Amino acid sequence: MGIYADIILPRLCHLAMRNRRLLPYRKRVIAHAEGRVLEIGVGSGLNLPLYGSSVREIVALEVAPRLIGMAQRSTRSVALPVTFIEASAEAIPLDNHSVDTVVTTWTLCTVPQAVDALLEMRRVLRAGGRLLFVEHGLAPDEGVRRWQNRLTPAWRRMSGGCHLNRPISQLIEAGGFRVDRLGTGYMPGPKPMTYMYEGSALPR
Known about the structure:
By secondary structure, the chain is of the alpha/beta class. It has six helices and seven strands. The chain has a seven-stranded mixed β-sheet. Strand 4 (99-105), helix 4 and strand 5 (125-136) form a beta-alpha-beta unit. It is globular, with a radius of gyration of 16 Å. The relative contact order is 0.15. The model is unreliable at 1-17 (pLDDT under 50).
């Protein structure tokens, strides 16, 4: 994909995720993070300034080098130590049970092998640790689902692999977690793109 994948797409994703309507979701999810945090798909670093005093360290995983460069600039306003890792979520280069919290925000829609990635998140999460997430995905309304299924093949090609129709809570369960808190609903915007899953899960 060349320059599109390396430069244009990251900038488009960065602009889309800056949507001010997403900020309350980010704040609610990040508020529950504690200890050593692994953020999956840190992107351009929009979450980094939101972490609070209950976090002692952030490990920021991102597959796109250009986005890592953008995220590193975000650390200027972050008091916590941040370590960047260029790697895929399906092969996390961390030891077993070495993090207290895993955070994903609008990431599981794009990870090529989402269940494999979740199994990796479970592996690195300590017993009693928590997965915190907010994602968009498959809607409960049949009419919206039909549009999500129709649009996803073209949408995936245009948006760097983003799926509109992934059943997020089912994927999390298939990845070895038990969802213990879940809120769902549409945010303002086109319904095929805006059905949100927000919550937390514990490793089984």
